[in-house]
Inverse folding.
């Protein structure tokens, strides 16, 4: 009888532990999926194909302003000219958090980004960047 009680208790503990662990990661996965969906509305992943934004085909490691035929915004062009940035992980961590703020910081001007979408959560940004590298 004691054994049985202990077993029930242990099972309850395990259930409680897994209940807190699973929704946390499922929550992150859900947020990442949502963000990816947003990228897809404004960006294509086909080489050279522009939508509202430039193609994100192999974008990680690309030099700024490299999408031929895409009309980058004023703030973007200023930042690219001044800082000659490369779209690497460090750039993306700041850019995706707040595109306009980051471009303004790089250019020292008041013109922001044409991209208004922001990802506030750091863990979501990290996952999105890992995903971008596969594109
Ligand atoms: C509402 C439309 C919109 C959404 C949503 C959006 N973007 Fe953008 N994105 C743009 C536009 C427009 C630009 C061009 C920025 C400029 O010229 O100022 C851009 C530029 C970029 C650039 C720079 C590309 C280059 O050639 O320098 C990257 C990287 C990028 N977006 C990544 C993303 C990612 C990742 C997501 C999803 C998390 C995303 N964007 C969501 C519109 C969007």
């Amino acid at each position: 009888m004691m054994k049985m009680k202990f077993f029930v208790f242990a099972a309850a503990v395990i259930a409680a532990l897994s209940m807190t662990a699973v929704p946390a990661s499922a929550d992150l996965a859900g947020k990442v999926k949502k963000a990816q969906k947003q990228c897809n509305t404004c960006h294509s992943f086909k080489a050279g194909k522009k939508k509202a934004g430039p193609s994100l085909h192999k974008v990680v490691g690309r030099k700024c302003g490299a999408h031929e035929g895409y009309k980058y915004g004023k703030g973007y062009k200023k930042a690219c000219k001044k800082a000659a940035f490369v779209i690497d992980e460090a750039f993306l961590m700041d850019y995706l958090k707040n595109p306009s703020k980051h471009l303004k910081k790089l250019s020292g001007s008041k013109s922001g980004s044409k991209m208004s979408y922001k990802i506030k959560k750091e863990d979501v940004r990290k996952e999105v960047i890992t995903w971008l590298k596969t594109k």
About this structure: The two ends are 58 Å apart (CA to CA). The chain has a mean pLDDT of 91. Residues 2-132 form a domain with the Cytochrome Bc1 Complex; Chain D, domain 2 fold (CATH 1.10.760.10). The CA atoms of residues 87 and 93 lie 10 Å apart.
